[in-house]
Write a structure and sequence with these properties.
Length: 151
């Protein structure tokens, strides 16, 4: 029982931590979309070093899968935890389909290509989508914890 509570805590905390960078991007997006090119590229410099945060969603996915396995005998908590893990996995797909290509095309926002405005929209909206998916994952995992019954 104590191990299950620890696993539940870990899954919720790691999923919540995975929301922090995406949430920051989502909240900053309305202000950043109006910036001109020079200002936008300058502001993007604040994200240097954020790549290290990539470990958090991976750890959250692992914790959410472990939670799903741990509660597999209870259908509702199992489905909720698994759905949370799948939402987090979807954020990785969003990253590799839209965010990463924009990072590559701009050399991590240090080079200004001709289509920088389209790349900015792609980058910003991909982060918004990831933030929404991560929030949904957090809700699902939390519901899994709330629906779980010992024994």
């Amino acid at each position: 029982m104590l191990a299950m509570k620890a696993l539940q805590f870990l899954a919720v905390v790691l999923t919540a931590l995975a929301l922090v960078p995406g949430g920051a991007h989502l909240l900053a997006m309305p202000n950043k979309l109006g910036l001109d090119g020079a200002a936008y590229f300058s502001v993007q410099g604040i994200y240097r070093g954020w790549a290290l945060l990539g470990i958090v969603p991976i750890a959250a996915i692992a914790a959410d899968i472990a939670l799903a396995i741990g509660v597999r005998r209870q259908p509702a908590p199992f489905r909720l935890a698994l759905a949370g893990a799948l939402c987090l996995a979807a954020t990785l797909a969003v990253f590799f389909l839209w965010t990463y290509p924009a990072n590559q095309a701009t050399a991590n926002w240090t080079a200004v290509p001709n289509d920088w405005a389209a790349l900015r929209r792609q980058w910003e909206y991909s982060h918004a989508a990831s933030a929404i998916l991560t929030f949904v994952a957090l809700c699902l995992v939390t519901l899994s914890v709330l629906r779980w019954r010992p024994g």
